[in-house]
């Protein structure tokens, strides 16, 4: 497999030094105690919080990529996604593909009408699924998923797990997935890394 994301000596005020290599098609799980810095790691990789160290995407240094382009390619999806416009599709990228969006909606068990729903009417679970759809439509190379199923029941949780696995296979992308759910970790499989005392350990 090809190295997709290469993080060397990453440091924040609370974390580091951290090293990690993510391969194309790979899903790596991040775990750790509450407050250990799981979200901080994802936000640092997305360059949303101050950090030091080298991060490369397919060999290209982050410092050589415009921040907005970096965040499209290395997409941070928090448990509570931000919404600023009135309707769902107003948050999509300008070149979004409607048929592709409809295909993902079907996988997420959401109706076509969801594209035109008002954000105010969305449940927390709908916001979570539509926030992930919004990320998919940017075709990121890396997904940084911060408890993306925290507000979902088991059936919809499994739908999202399958959808993310499908996305990684179809786009040859990679993902870091933060989860507190032991059963989910068993279902997802793959490498599991723990943040302990500011370091990443197997």
TrEMBL record:
It holds the Pfam family ABC_tran. It comes from the Bacteria. GO terms for molecular function: ATP binding; ATP hydrolysis activity. Coiled coil: none annotated. SUPFAM superfamilies: P-loop containing nucleoside triphosphate hydrolases (SSF52540). Residues 5-201 form the ABC transporter domain. Keywords: ATP-binding, Nucleotide-binding. InterPro entries: AAA+_ATPase, ABC_transporter-like_ATP-bd, ABC_transporter-like_CS, P-loop_NTPase. PROSITE patterns: ABC_TRANSPORTER_1 (PS00211), ABC_TRANSPORTER_2 (PS50893). PANTHER family: ABC TRANSPORT PROTEIN ATP-BINDING COMPONENT-RELATED, ABC TRANSPORTER DOMAIN-CONTAINING PROTEIN. This is ABC transporter related protein.
């Amino acid at each position: 497999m090809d190295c997709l994301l290469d993080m060397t000596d990453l440091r924040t005020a609370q974390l580091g030094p951290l090293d990690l290599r993510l391969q194309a098609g790979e899903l790596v799980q991040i775990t750790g105690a509450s407050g250990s810095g799981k979200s901080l790691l994802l936000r640092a990789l997305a360059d949303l919080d101050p950090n030091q160290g080298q991060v490369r995407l397919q060999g290209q240094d982050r410092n050589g990529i415009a921040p907005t382009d970096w965040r499209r390619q290395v997409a941070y999806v928090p448990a509570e996604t931000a919404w600023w416009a009135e309707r769902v599709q107003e948050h999509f990228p300008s070149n979004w593909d409607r048929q592709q969006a409809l295909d993902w909606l079907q996988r997420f068990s959401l109706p076509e009408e969801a594209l035109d729903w008002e954000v105010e009417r969305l449940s927390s679970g709908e916001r979570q699924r539509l926030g992930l759809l919004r990320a998919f439509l940017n075709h990121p190379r890396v997904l940084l998923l911060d408890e993306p199923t925290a507000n979902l029941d088991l059936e919809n949780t499994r739908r999202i797990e399958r959808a993310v696995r499908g996305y990684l296979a179809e786009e040859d992308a990679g993902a870091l997935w933060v989860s507190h759910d032991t059963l989910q970790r068993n279902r997802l499989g793959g490498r599991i890394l723990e943040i302990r005392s500011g370091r990443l350990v197997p």
